Model the fold of this input.
Amino acid sequence: MNLFSQEVPLSWYLLLSAVLFTLGVVGFLIKRNLIAVFMSIELMLNAVNLSFVTFAHQWHAVKGQIFVFFVMMVAAAEAAVGLAIIIAVFRARATLAVDRIDLMKL
Amino acid sequence: MNGYLHLWLIPLLPFAGFLINGILGRRLPKWLVTTVALLAPLASFGVVLWSAMRVWPSTEPDLPPVVMPHLETIGNWLGIGTLHIDFSFVLDQLSLVMLLVVTGVGFLIHIYSVGYMGDEEGYARYFSYLNLFLFFMTVLVLAGNALLMFVGWEGVGLASYLLIGFYFQKKTAADAGKKAFIVNRIGDFGFLIGMFLLLANFGTLTFSTIGTMLGADPGWHGGVVTVIALCLLLGAAGKSAQLPLYIWLPDAMEGPTPVSALIHAATMVTAGVYMIARTHILFDHSPFALGVVAIVGAATAIFAATIALVQNDIKRVLAYSTISQLGYMFLGCGVAAYSAAIFHLVTHAFFKALLFLAAGAVIHAIGGEQDLRKMGGLWKKLPVPFAVTTVGVLAIAGFFPFAGFFSKDAILYAAFVQGGSGRVLWFVGLVTALLTSFYMFRLWYLAFMGQPRHEEAHHHATPPSMLVPLAILALLSIGGGWIGIERFAGFLAPSVGARGAENGSAQLELILSIVAVAMALLGWFIADLLYRQKPARPAELAAALPGGYRLLANKYYVDEFYGATVVKPLLAISKYVLGWVVDVGVLGGIAWLLAGIATVAGAILQRWQSGNLRSYAAWLAAGAAAVLLFLVVPWAALLAGLTSLHFGMAGH
Done:
């Protein structure tokens, strides 16, 4: 059996997806720059996309792939709105440090 | 084959009038309001007349005959286990007579109100209430079972409350409405207990079934029947303003005068008498309860008559006289002369409605003045009210050709021939007749005779819409008694039994009549002496007997007595026990406790709302991790003691 014709096992993909997702979560929690936080969110979304595609391939179901398109679309819209918000925040407060943007407090 | 009369139309037509004028009245033009308000009772009266023609034998041969008692069931109302209560209307001799009075006199008073209330605000509201009253009153009269009667009973109480408090911006009127409602609640309590006992002992509330059961088994005597009858008597005493619950009726005079005539003289207050006549079989099986009815009636008659002697408000004199006359009716019921009592009910409806409407015409004409001391000499200015009041006074005093003579005589005669304690009742009734004659002629002299004691300002003309009902009622007050008690009792006998007209002689009847008329003449003579010949004498008499006069002028201090013994303790309990302990202490404490818990919990949980995005995100991540742990690792769920939930979710 050819080593290269052998398929990559399912668990590898999932493991990669989990690692990426965790990186995203950790980045979201510890990064101070708003743009970095935003990028972490994108990372989490793409980690999820990866597991969607994996399962779609595994079960020969097209639903997972369709869902990925949805996620990408929402992510694109979110990027547009999110970046606009970031620019607005920077203009108003001259900083992008998450710790200093805490006006939601009661 | 029994005919169908559409009895349901009788109450429903006034109800339609109530709905139209009550909902749309303010937006409709006045003539339309008047048309609706008058058509509703007229149509109802028409149905009653048509029904009366149908039940009369040998008329309308093409239509199937109607035999009384005629029952019409609209449908089932309540069905609980074996208990079935129907919307059933009964037309028998008793309800037919009552319906003729209620819708007939009611219609006349509607016409009168058009003139009397013409300039008032709330014209449509007034007529919608009046129509509502007729709806409930006809339901009360037609009801075939006690519960349906109770619906009408409560409903007329509501209409009475609304109309007494018609001028609700006036505090005395609003208070009088509340007083009437609350005092009536005491009576209604008795009625309710009576109904519960009927259900417990007979298992039904249908009058005819109860009658059959009582008739079939002679074992029903005294005991529970007496208790039921006394409970019903309490209800009747509340509605018909008898001792000790009469106190609301004089205050009810705060309402418009046509209301006093319709509700508080002619119809609603006689509902108690009607109810006793309707349930007379119960009373017939309990001589004790019957005796109580007679004593209550006689005591009320003379008690109210003595108060009426010294009242100065024209409507209050009439109110106390109404209480006194209702006492006569109770006296009649108490000696089992139900037909005599109903006879007096009918004639009283004629002449007392007449007197009230005439008084209303006087009050209307002289600009709202009700004090007899400020009237006087009105006979020249108000000839028609003067003439009809004269008729009414002669009728209520019991002079020969007038209606009151026949009916009052029938009651006194029935009491007399009962013998024993009946003689005492007869004597009380006779003294009351003397007092009645005196205070009515006193009113007559003070209002219409002597010198004018009022300013000449605003004299209103009396419109024809007020004069026509007065004329019709005057004719009825003159001729209404000529039916005669024999024919009347004969007609009513299938409904209320024939007792009360036997074992007497024409000679005895004649003698008693002469005695009664002599008493009436004596009353007139005394009134003439005091108020025409020596007008200074009444004041001298009052000064000579200061204690007695004050006792009467203050109505025996009954209101004060009730105030001190019932109202004040009740208010104190409401204020201190219910108000402070229960409301402020218990309920308020619970409210404060709950508010405190929420405040403290909020203060603690508030710390979560740091406004720091990363702390929110951390909680979010922690939550997601916890859910993940819970779903993936079974032992975590075990640890949390949520095994069943876990397997439940796993099963999906």
Q: What stands out?
A: The interface with chain B takes residues 25, 28-30, 37, 98-99, 101-106 of chain A (CB under 8 Å).
